[in-house]
Amino acid sequence: MSLSTTNITTTLVSQTLGFASNDVGTLVASASSGGIGGYAFYIAENNNGTTTDGTLLPSSLPKWNIYSNNSPGEWKLSAFVQNKIEFKLKRSIYDSNRYDFSLGSFRGYNHSAITPILNAQSADIGQNTGSGTYNKGFSINCNLGEYDWTKVSSSASKVKVVITRDIGGDVAATTVLNNIGTGTISFSSPILITGSTTAYGTYTFTQQIAICDSSGNVIFYLPISSKITINIYKVVPSVLNATIGGVTTQISKGSYTFNIQSGYVTQSYAVGTTMAINKTLRQIIYNLYDSNSGTLVSTATYTTFGNYDKPTTIASITSGTPILFSAQWDTNRLYPTAKQYVVINMFYS
Q: Does the reported pTM lie above 0.85?
């Protein structure tokens, strides 16, 4: 809900905030969360030996929306920390030593103004061993909300997203510059994050919205951030086995991309002995395992076979002549996700 720029009353402000008070100072300074002495700001009324410059208290919020473009407060550059902004109560235009405790400060106030948005993202990357390198592209977009961030600095005109590693703190990637605007801002190309690993595990990054000058120099970061998480998991090749007359032979151990045809896995296998065996396919068992732990996740036995389950009979084996084994490989059978592998066992007797 937005208030108009005229005919502002304490009753209207109170109803908009959902806070029963007819005192302007109370409407402006009271805390909805956190606070000291019921107030959300460092002010004289809750002075505990610290500053009383109207700065928003840590982990505190007033009854009104600090991301509305019009409100009793404003975002200001920190005098002490580089690239940081702080939220403060506005000073009176008539007396800079006083806060602007006035109904006029609520003209055009939007109680539903959105907080700037920078969505968290994650990706899973498989590696054959725990050590190596990775690279992953992420499409980055953000929403600056309705607040006019150029009010903080006259040099502010551009925006970018800066991504830093949580371990080490170095910048892992930066988007291209875009113009400051309202609504969703999409950056023109995916951002590539690269790195090296020494073990399987999770690697996290912090992404922040940076408000910049026309050359891309960071003036300040918005006070929100989100995470990018890259999970490095172990890739284990799936296996196709055949047990013929009680003797198990590993027919195919798939490569790390696994030799998959359209709907089935297949492999030729030649033995070194000629024999007449007359064996029939009786069952196929699929065992599904977790790649990282090797734990058996699920198992399924099939005794009804499809067109891809071959051969159904083996009359004889000729030394050096390959036999083509294949088994169905789709979601109608037990099927692995990215962090799993399957051992398929074909039983002939």
A: no
